[in-house]
Amino acid sequence: QVQLVESGGGLVQPGGSLRLSCEASGIIFRLSAMGWFRQTPGKQRELVTEIDSSGDTNYVDSVKGRFTISRDNGKNTLYLQMTSLKPEDTAVYYCNVRPSRLVSSWGQGTQVTVSS
Predict the structure, then answer these.
(1) In what order do the strands lie in the sheet with 67-72?
(2) Could you give the CA distance from residue 93 to residue 39 in angstroms, rounded to a whole number?
(3) Which runs of E-coded beta strand occur in 1-90?
(4) Checking phi first, is residue 47 left (phi over 0); if not, alpha (psi -120 to 50) or beta?
(5) Are the CB atoms for 49 and 35 separated by under 8 Å?
(6) DSSP label at 65?
(7) Which residues pair with 77 in a beta bridge?
(8) What is the pLDDT of residue 100?
(9) CA dist 81 to 5, 16, 19, 50, 68, Å?
(10) Closest of 116, 46, 49, 115 to residue 81, by C-alpha
(11) CA distances from 19 to 12, 33, 43, 61, 85 (A)
């Protein structure tokens, strides 16, 4: 059974930084491509960034140069370092496996609020 536990969200001022973590169990983490997603009320969940088992990464244009995805296979943990945060980054952030057809469930997510 896949379990994903996101943490690290909070309230931050514009221009600030946060580091999100995602602890994964029930998967062979080191062999799994992973992604960070975000969702705001009334909108579909969107993929923000992903990393494959080799460490290759992709980012949506809106976060390029500001967000960095990384992984620690020894700890079965995925990270998202977010810098230069903007109000439009406000959302609930989730992690999950990639591609989407492999997703069986979602964690509770972690709320990120960027506001002065």
Answers:
(1) 3-7, 18-25, 77-82, 67-72
(2) 7
(3) 3-7, 10-12, 18-25, 33-39, 46-51, 57-59, 67-72, 77-82
(4) beta
(5) yes
(6) T
(7) 23, 72
(8) 87
(9) 16, 11, 4, 13, 5
(10) 49
(11) 11, 19, 23, 19, 11
- pLDDT at res. 30: 96
Contact status, residue 58 vs residue 49, Cβ threshold 8 Å? yes
What pLDDT, on the 0 to 100 scale, is given for residue 1? 86
Tens of pLDDT, residues 43-100: 999 999 999 999 999 999 999 999 999 999 999 999 999 999 999 999 999 999 999 8
Taking the alpha carbons of 71, 60, 62, 96 in that order, is the dihedral positive or negative?
negative
